[in-house]
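## tool: complex_structure
## caller: assistant
## args:
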Amino acid sequence: MRQWFYLLVLVMGFVCIPTLKVNGEVIVQPKIVQAAEGVFSKETLSQVFVGSGLLKTAPHIMDMIKPLIKGLHGEKSSNIPETLPELPYLLIGLPSEHLALMQLKGDGRFKLPSSGLGKEGYLLDITPQHIHLTADSPEGIFYGVLYLIQRLESEAAKTGIPCGKIADWATLRWRGVHILFNGRQDVPQIERLLTEFMPRLRLNQLIIEINYFFDYKSHPEVAAQNPLTRVDCQHLRELAQKNFIRIIPMLNCMGHQSWAKTTMSLLTTHPEFDETPNAPKDNTGLYCRSWCPSHPSISKFVSDLCDELIDAFHAGAFHVGMDEVFLIGKCPRCKGKDPADLFAKAVNDLHKHLVGKRKVEMYLWGDRLLDGVGMKLGEWEASTNGTAPAIDKIAKDIVICDWHYELPDDFPSIAHLQQHGFRVIPSGWNLKESVKRFLGVGLKLQGAKLPGYLATTWTSAGGVVEGLLGVKAAREEGEKENKNADLPGAIRLGAKMAWEGR
Ligand SMILES: [Zn+2]
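## result:
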């Protein structure tokens, strides 16, 4: 079998590894480390080989390893070395691409899970003479390269990386972050999240709450100023793909149609959808306006908007929001109806379109499905306005983002939602201790009904980036509400726990 490798010859060694440093960046602890004698010194690396099959399916892997080969003057070669060289080298490829990689995969001393490494798992063999990296898929190679880059950049690597064999894989396959979108000016910061920050935190799902900041064509009157364009979406989609990240667009449905004195464009342009059309225009006395789930035209109208976001991102999943719906059953059409029935109808109308017609996964905030009184939860993170029985009236294939930000000893909502048949994504915010306890409970219930963890941020991509960079202003913003708030710290902790499973 003919294989092709890129051969890159050392001139300057590893002296030019760029410092894409993220303050306090987390390097995950691999699940299996079989330590051996000696170290691999990055100063001695002389050649890098990358499997051609890997490059064919994921050509951007070469971009990925640029930090490793920067400074090496390379020449492409079709010659596979008969035997691998004596000089310290790096070999990256799928198991089928070299006998040494096949042997690494077949090493029976690794106690892998029965399901194997999974799509994101990888194996490393580090000796003073070589580093072999293999995985069952390009994603696994991607995470293995990330691990290597982070190890080589770390302070501890100055004297070399300790030798040994390493196996690592993701505990939770779904590891996400949710951001707000406030207009096109946010795009460069989303690029940074996708290319610099999320990969290094092992995050693979980005929920962008776009709402009306999109260049809608079906109902152009609802497009907010400075909206996201289709070209932007294509660009972000391509960046996401290269970094094995899925973008999940979000339109907050039903509730949250206003914030403070500002009413969102749907209800300013279509007051006929307003659940409380006679409420004060400046929203005095209201938390957030809602749209009326009983209006005969609302379902089709919103489906049109969802379709445009799904098409622009080629999205395989969609988040409909629907948290904190307080105004329900107020208008003449809805009055007298059971709030749970009204809420369930709104959810199921969306489900019929998103899952039934568009075949995308549907995500929903969980608070309206939880009984705040029975579960002793507040009226924000759970419902005290009669919507909780909707838990038995909506489709079970909806993924519930169960958000809690406080510090209870237990988080019974996860098991409760699972017992009602849902997949649950625990969703934390800006208190590290809360994330630790919440995800601690979640990890005990992991499995098909608990596929992941979501870091909510309630800020824009720029806010998240500044926070992760340690820019003080961003930190102070988060600390206004609670002196213990540490959004970047909480994001890192959640991401680390979700990958490591501990
Ligand atoms: Zn109504």
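## assistant note: The longest helix spans residues 339-357. Confidence is low (pLDDT under 50) at residues 1-23, 73-79. Handing back to user.
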